[in-house]
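Feature request, filed as a ticket because there's no other form

It would be nice if the structure record came with a short human-readable summary line next to the tokens. Right now we just get the raw output. Example of a typical job, pasted below so the devs can see what we mean:
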Amino acid sequence: MAISPLITPADCALLLIDQQAGLAFGVESIPRQTLLNNVVALARTAKLFQLPIIASTSASAVYSGPVMPAVQAAIGDIRSIERRNMNLWEDEAAKAAVMATGRRRLLVSGLLTEACVSFPVLSALAEGFDVSVIADTCGGLTPDSHALALRRMEAAGATVTSWLQVLLELQRDWTHRETYTEARSIVENHAGGYGIGLNYARDMIHPASPPAAG
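Raw output as currently delivered:
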């Protein structure tokens, strides 16, 4: 049976790879505050839709530091798996955690695009996984090297997408009330003009009551 082109909460897992400040300092492909905003939005989305989340870090004690605090707050008590290998797929514990989810569709977010993102993506694709790279939650050392890494992964079969498309794809229908309120909150807090528009629409449809006289 052909795989659906659209992801669902039941068929995918999120890999957060090396979302650490020491690596973010080197990112030049996207403004760092925008990168952090996008990663937090993606993490909140994964938690909302109850996706398995595998967080992994490298060189935490000597260079990169822990998972960035805002990202850690978004994923709650999920603990990162420390690696020595740049390729998560070649780390026994990290790969075992991915396999334990039972999910064959992977959403990948990480630093840096040229190595710790592209290496496991290429490795997972080679083993038949369906992989989506959340490009605006990844950062490269230069805009060109980031773009070239994305092109290489896409040429190998990865899908390149954005955190907002992931949220909308998982929500799919705004009448899904069980996730509506938090999904809307994520958009309002993290999606710039689109979030402003949702706030505006809500206020137009359900305007606030006028203040009481006096």
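Something like this underneath would help us a lot:
The radius of gyration is 18 Å.
Strands lie at 12-17, 53-58, 81-83, 105-110, 130-134, 159-161.
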